[in-house]
Write a structure and sequence with these properties.
452 residues, Alpha-Beta Plaits, 13 helices, 47% helix
């Protein structure tokens, strides 16, 4: 009689079999007698309520016991409703429909709560969209649920699918999915009760294994984001009006998730751009004085902690004032840009080069001792001297370098009181010695001290 009414049913002959069947595929509702062999109805009720997968199943007790105490015991055990024997089928059917409506309402509410939490709390768009398709599939019991972006009339992109979480950004040929194109471009829900007999799918039925019911809901998103649809399909069992309404609500949540993801991505781009602007020298594109000091502090702490060396080179363009006076400040700026390019191509990925100020530059060398830092300074000096400066039609330029090191790896080394400032002061004094000694040379802080 229940099957004739359109319900899908499974029958258990005793309480133990009922528990096993339910655990294999949790039902929406259980009709349960109190008096049963092996495990009675009340015990089955209690086991259901203790099982996380079965605790939300509605249980309707069928009992010959109509006393008040018997009813109270059944409700306390976890039954949602009861019908006393003998009963009329119309009454039982009405109770079943009412309980299923209550369960559907609770399921919809719980699913929307989980979706809302995902949309509002997660910054991972893949996680949000997978949650959305999973919850829709669980509530309407679909075999497949997917979120698809429509690129044009021939191409779509599979954004998220319930069945295969790792499958995303896969290209689809929409020539085989006329139902998706119809929903996307007509901006309305497309419902197909039977894929075998729907004229819209007459030319593509070979791609659909077996009879299916299909529901496609377009997403209302900003035009800049593109066209999206939510596609749900299952074995030939038409979608009901409540399920369609729920899918539309989920589609709205998906649209919000996509909008939030777009805003987050744009914010990340904007933040990166602002960070770059804040840390970059406008003229040369190198890191600026501010970022150099931040990195110096970080590298100093790391070197001190791991007993590794930290080298620093301060370098200055020789006679740069003559360049500005002779060729003008615009040519001078062009020279500084060219110099920056030369310096960048001579350093390691782990090193940092920054414009320290005017025509002076700083090169920070993590895990580099005095000998290594001096070799790097000489390498840069030779590269600059050999470079053909376009802005000066090949007129050669030279640099002077001051080299200093914090040899934390040395057992007899004692860190100075002012730490980072001392390293800069040593390199600066070495640079001054190089300039005073005739320029176009590299001087270490140790050589400067011995010369003095």
């Amino acid at each position: 009689m229940l099957q004739f009414k359109g319900y899908r049913t499974s029958v258990a002959r005793n309480g133990r079999e009922a528990i096993e069947l339910a655990r294999q595929e949790p039902p929406d509702l259980v009709l349960l007698d109190v008096m049963m062999p092996e495990v009675d109805g009340l015990a089955v009720c209690r086991i259901f309520k203790q099982d996380p997968r079965l605790k939300d199943v509605r249980i309707l007790m069928l009992t010959a016991k109509s006393g008040r105490e018997d009813v109270v015991v059944a409700l306390e055990a976890g039954a949602a409703d009861y019908v006393t024997k003998p009963f009329f089928f119309d009454e039982l059917d009405a109770r079943i429909r009412t309980n299923l409506e209550v369960k559907r309402y609770h399921d919809d509410l719980a699913a929307m709560l989980r979706i809302s939490q995902a949309v509002s709390s997660s910054l991972d768009s893949d996680e949000v969209l997978f949650t959305i398709v999973s919850e829709l599939g669980a509530v309407v019991k679909s075999d497949r649920v997917s979120l698809i972006k429509v690129i044009d009339e021939r191409t779509g992109i599979l954004i998220a699918t319930r069945e295969e979480p790792e499958m995303r950004n896969q290209e689809l040929s929409l020539e085989e999915y006329p139902e998706i194109l119809k929903a996307a471009y007509e901006r309305r829900v497309v419902l197909i009760d039977d894929t075998d007999n729907d004229p819209l799918l007459a030319d593509v039925t070979e791609r659909i294994p077996g009879r299916k019911s299909v529901l496609i809901v377009p997403l209302d998103v900003h035009k800049e984001l593109g066209e999206y649809v939510l596609l749900s399909s299952r074995e030939h069992r038409p979608y009901t009006r409540p399920e369609i309404r729920f899918a539309q609500v989920v589609a709205s949540a998906a649209a919000n998730g996509l909008a939030n993801a777009a805003l987050y991505e744009q914010a990340a781009v904007d933040n990166q751009r602002l960070s770059t602007l804040a840390n970059t020298d406008d003229l040369t594109g190198l890191y600026n004085h501010r970022h150099f000091y931040q990195r110096l502090e970080d590298e100093f702490k790391r070197a001190e902690r791991y007993n590794s060396d930290l080298g620093l080179i301060l370098l200055d363009l020789d006679h740069f004032k003559n360049v500005n006076d002779t060729f003008g400040h615009q040519r001078g700026d062009a020279v500084l840009k060219e110099l920056a390019s030369v310096l960048v191509r001579t350093i390691r990925e782990t090193d940092l080069v920054a414009r320290y100020g005017g025509e002076e530059f700083a090169v920070l060398l993590p895990e580099t001792g005095m000998a290594g830092a001096f070799r790097q300074a000489e390498r840069m000096r030779r590269e600059v001297k050999a470079h053909y400066f376009e802005a000066l039609q090949g007129k050669p330029l030279t640099i002077s370098c001051g080299v200093a090191c914090m040899p934390f790896g040395s057992e007899d080394f004692t860190s100075p009181e002012h730490r980072q400032d001392a390293l800069i002061a040593w390199a600066d004094q070495a640079l001054y010695t190089a300039k005073r000694g005739g320029r176009d040379r590299s001087i270490t802080s140790e050589a400067r001290q011995s010369a003095e």
